[in-house]
Each structure stands twice: as structure tokens, then as C-alpha cells.
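Handout, section 4.2: multi-component inputs.
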Amino acid sequence: MNIKKSKIYILLVMLLLLTSGCWDNRDINHRVMPVVLGVSKESEEEYKAYLQVPILQEDGIKTQIITGVGKTINEIVDKTSANLESNVDLLHIKVIVIDRAFAEEGVKDLISGIMRSREIPSKALVAICEEDMDEFFKKMSQVELSDGTALLDYFEKNAGWNPQIALTRVWHVYRSIHSYTKDVAIPIIRLGESTLIEQAGSAVIKNGAMLDEINSDETLLYNAFQGMSAHGKIEVLDEGSVLILDNGLNFASRLENELPILTLELQLEVMILEVKGDPTIEKIEKELEKLLKPRFENMITKLKDSEADILGIGQLFRKEIPRAQLKDWRSKYYPNLKFNLTVDVTIQNSGNLKEPGE
Amino acid sequence: MKGLLFMKSLLSEINKSIGKNDDLYKWSQDFGNIQVVLVGLSSLIDFPKTIQLLEGQIQTVRHSSEVIVQQLHKIGKVKSEKKEIIEAIFEGELIIFIDELGLVISIDPVPKTLNRSIESPSSDNNIQGPLSAFNEDLSTNIGLLRKEFSSVELQVSSYTFGNSQKKGLSLLYCKDQVNNKLVENVTKQVESNLDKMLYTIQDVTKMLGLPKYSLISSFNTTESPQEVYSNLVKGRVVLFLDRLPYALILPSTLWDMFAIRNDENYSFVIMIALRLLRVIGAITALVLPGLYVALVAVNPEMLRIELALSVAKTREGVPYPAFVEVILMLVILELIIEASVRLPKSIGPTVTMVGGIVLGQAAVDARLVSNLLIIILAASTIASSTIVGFQNSFTIRIFKYNTLVLASIFGVLGVFTGLFLVCAYIASKTTLGIPYLSVKGEMKSG
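Output:
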């Protein structure tokens, strides 16, 4: 190694240290890490943001709510960051709660802003709050033994999530704004009476704005359509209730005279949880099919009317409809959709007891 | 008479150059009717026994002086040059001056026992395996190996290095297995550098023309004959340097960090598990300190929120940035490791204890470092010791800083950049034409 070569190496190391821009790295204990961001409209032009921050205490974690008003989310965060002793780090935001009125008005700009930002993760979940936001977040911070992650756990698949809740992330919403054929459902939450949060179905979102609502039973079917309803429970009114073990969906799509025709077959593998009386297996299966078919049909009809394709049926017709006409899917094709639905229920097991009716 | 004069002048010359050494022993002795002078170093030669032996051999032949001289010729070598004689003296030979005939003969005497006996290895510990280890004596080492590998395939070539001082070096290889080009290379280097002086492994490295600034040891060193045997069979070349109780195995490859022959004394599954454990150890030691800095200072979003909060809690009140904190503790740890190597065995435990208290409790209590860091560093230090060969664990310990610095700048990306650089570095290394990353099968085709 001659001197010239070692000089170059020293220069490279100096460059690495001086130009890397790592001087503003902040250690974890100097960051405020909000986990929930709530957004509502304060006035025509101004947002009001709520940051739910877990604060470390000697005897555990307490929740603090920081609020701010500003024209953009970044402005609010900047302002609060300047006032706090630590730096606000939005990278840990897991849930974004949007005020219902704001959602109905349309959240296109907010969602694009979040997607554009390198701070707020695009994999954060989106939820709509029916409650007054001030009230909602006040309650959040008061919960006993809350470690600040209650709302987050509510949506965690390995914690509190269950298949009646839609699971939609920021990038899903962003995709739906820009897609011709796919919309999303966002879960609606409100404060519960005995529990912290209560779910109130899902909002149907089209082009970033809330159009309609589906209830939690329909959300379960929505999730079944996406292939993630395992372990959802269905009440069969007269006979008892069952647990969905697995679900599958078969479909055939074709276009006849510019009319989309869809044949759908929803297969559910279920397990019996409770029965009333002594119905036979066949009867339970039949009852269940009888219950689910109209429920599903009603939902699709409702969605057709609102021209919001949250099930992504348009995706199934992409191969039939040319690209140029695809943008008319929601307005021209979708409302005229003809569908033929069969629900096929198989009872896989009857729990620890023998099958009823035997 | 001419011989007598020659003898006198030779003796006085030798006296002049080395006579001031108090262990130079001169003794006039009569063998039958021949008068001889015995010269040698009393520190290397067991004189009473040697003389007894000589007398025994010569007394049995009660013949004329010619016969005795003939007898001496048989057991020794004739020397005539002064330089030659002095060298022979320092190599521990006994010089017999026969005044009348003007003849100098050097013979191998009974040496003083200056070597340790064969002991168990001190740095290559093993639990279930042979325990004899090499020691400082070259011929003992080769003997040990001959016992381990009794075959005509084992080829031993010995060389003597140095001018004023002689140092023996032996080159061993398995004729059947070895890559001929490698032997050729090594032999060429050895033969063209016979005048160089070899004291340390660094000298050997230089003599063989191996890179001086390499962070990876070109040699794999071991104390165990079993290990050497397995390497010879794999086609490696082994060097023994006199007075160095290690075998130097050439070339070393990456896999030597993780596998030793002794693993094969356990069942196959356990062998795989052990080697896997070492691989995990190496990666842990490399990555863990860097990952800590990356996750705490640069990319906390990678942590789950619950974990992030508890990590933040352990760091509450720590005055230094994570990088400084880690460097501080790492330096102390390295000091402890170095100190426990240096210190006499009786003081060693004290250092460990003091180090343990300082690192484990006081530093955390004083809120100088977070207690998570202590766990990380302990894990990393323990992990770096799972690697085979002390020289390899040095390598890992140095590479760790590379990942650490990059991690403190680029975060998790930096950790991977660091790993990439390490991979690139070890991929670029070759020893005498054989890549460091070469695997078993390629050795022969070379």
C-alpha cells in the first residue's frame, strides 16, 4: 500500500463521515413516537390532527394526546415538534383515524399526502370514527392500563382483529383512488359502551370519499370475498351458529353485448359451534346457504347502486374489457352487472360432540 | 606436528570469539592413548552422560589409535572450518579435537532435556477428542504427526533458515492429495528465501510472499495433530517452525472458521448442529452491535412499537448517542479480553470479576449505558468466541467495527452494506493462488 493509495482511502473515509448527513440521527429516547394519527376538518381549509403518543412512566406507559391545527399535516407536526422536548417521529404510526364528516367529504388529498410523505408509513391502517374526535381521543387517553396501543391491537391480526372488521391500509385507499376497477371498505369505529371500541360496519369508499355503509355481517362476506374470513362466526338464526374454517371463491366472468355476467360460487368450510334442537347436518347447511345467499346478493346490489366496486369485481372483467373502456367500468358496466351466486357450505366437523340429529 | 599447530590456532581462535561464554565447556580427555579435547555448551549438552557414552563405545574397542579414530569417524562428522565448528557448537553438538591427528569431529551428544513433555492443548481446547498437542520441538512435532499419519504418503522436507542464527522449518504434505502447484509455489518461496531469518508467523508470511496487510490470516494454526492430519488429507500444506508450538496450515479457507476435525467425534447430527452454531455465532458477532445502533439511532421504525417503547425506556437518561455508547463499551470489552490473555493466571479472575461488575452493573446504574447494550455486547463477545481458531476470532472482532460504523451512518441498510463489504473482502482474498472462499472439491483441481 503506497502513500497515494492510502491518501485516497483516508479521503473516502472522511467523505463517508462528513457527507453522509447522519448528524441529525436521533436516538430512540429522543423521539416521540405517536402510534395513532387522527385527522378531522377544523374549518374549510384547516385540518385538526390528533397524535396519540405512548409516554414512558416509572410504572408503565401512559397515553398522551397531542393536538394541533394547521393547513397541512406536516405543518401541524412541525409546530408540535417545535413545542415538544423531543422530535415527533411519525414512522411508527400504525392507525390513521379519519373523522366521518371529513371522510364523506373526501380524503383524496390527505391520502396522497401520506403516500408522498416519507415519514408516515403507507402500510398504516385506516379507520373512520363516527364519534366526535375530541371525545374519542379523550376517552383513549383515559383508559385504565392502556399502554397506548389499544387501538393498534384492535386491528392487529395476532391480537384483537377478527374477520368482521375490514382491514384497509393507506396504500389500498390510494390504489382505489387511482384504479378503474377496485374500491375499498374502511372500518367504522365508535366508542363502545362496555368495551373501549365498538365496530359499526364498514364505509364504502370510492374515489377517496365515503359513499355508503355496509354492516359487520356484510363485512364478513367482504372479507370472505378477499379470502380472509377464516374463524369468522355466523349466526344461523334458528339452528345455532357456525365457525368458518376456510373459504374459497370460484368465478367465471364473461361479457355479453357489453353486459357483464358473473357466475360466483362461494365455498365455505365450517364447524358447528352451537345448535338449537336437533337439526340434521343437511338442514344446517341448507339454512346457512339460505341465509348467506340473499345477504350476499343484497350487498352486491347495494354496491352496484352506489357504483363503488369494493369487491373488486371489475378485476375479474379486465380480460374482457379493453383498456380504453375500462375507465367506464364503474359507470357503464358495473351497474348493469348480472350475477348468479351459489353458496356452497360444507360442514367439516361438529366440534367435540357427535353430529346433531344422529 | 603440523596438525598440532593447526589445532592450537583453531582452539585459540574459537576461544577468542566465543570463549567469554561461561557455559562453553572444554575438557581434555584420554581415549586409550589418544588425547582429545572435548568442546561444547554445557547448557545444551549433558556432559557426564555424553562422556560415559563415548567411553563405553570406545573402550569396547581396545585397539590402536587408528581404529579409535575410525570409530569416531563413524559416529560423527569431520569439521575443518572455524565458522562451521562454531555453528555446530551453538547447535548443541559436541566437538572433539584430536590434537595428534589435527582432526576435528563433531558428534551428537546426549542433550539436556529442554523441551516440555507433550501436554494437552492450551488454546485449541476440545472435550471429546485426542488431547496431545504440539510443543516447541520440531522433531517432536513431526514425530507426533507421524504417529497420527503413519503412511508413505506423508512427505516431510526440512529447511534451515538464517545466516548467523539457524532456524528449522519443516514442510509437510500428503503426496497423494496435495495440489502440486501449491507445493511447487511454497517450495520455490522457501528455497529462494533460505537466508531470511524466521522468528514469528509474520516472518513466515513475509517469506512466503503472502499479503502483509490482510485482515484474514493466511494460515490456519492449530495445536492438534488430529487437525493437521485432516488438513493434510484435504490437500493442504503444513509448516512447522522450530520453537513454535503450532502447525501452520496453508492455505486457510472460510470453512476452517466453522469446522474442525474433532466435530466428527460426535454424531453427524450434532456435528451439523455445532457447525451451524458457529455460523450463527459469527453472524451474530458481526451484526449485533451494528444492528443495535441502527435500530436505536437510525431506524427505530423497524422495531415493533412495544419493543421500541421498552428500548426507549432502557435508554432514558443515557447521555451519549448510541454509537458513542457502543464504542465506549466495546473498547472496555476488548481491553478486558486483552488483559485476561496477558495477565498471569492467578490475577486473571480478578480482572474478569472487576470487568464483570463494571460492565454489568455499575455502568448501567450510573446511567452511562443502557442495559440492553450490555446484553447485546455480552452476546456478541461470546458469539465471536465460538469461532474455530483464535486468529479467526480476531478477524471477526475487527469486521464488527466496520458494520458498526456503517450502521451508525446508514442504519439497517448500513448493516447490510457492512456485511456486503465483508463478503466482498473475503471473496477477494487468495492464498498462493487458492481463493479463501474455495470449497473442498476444488482444492485438488486448483
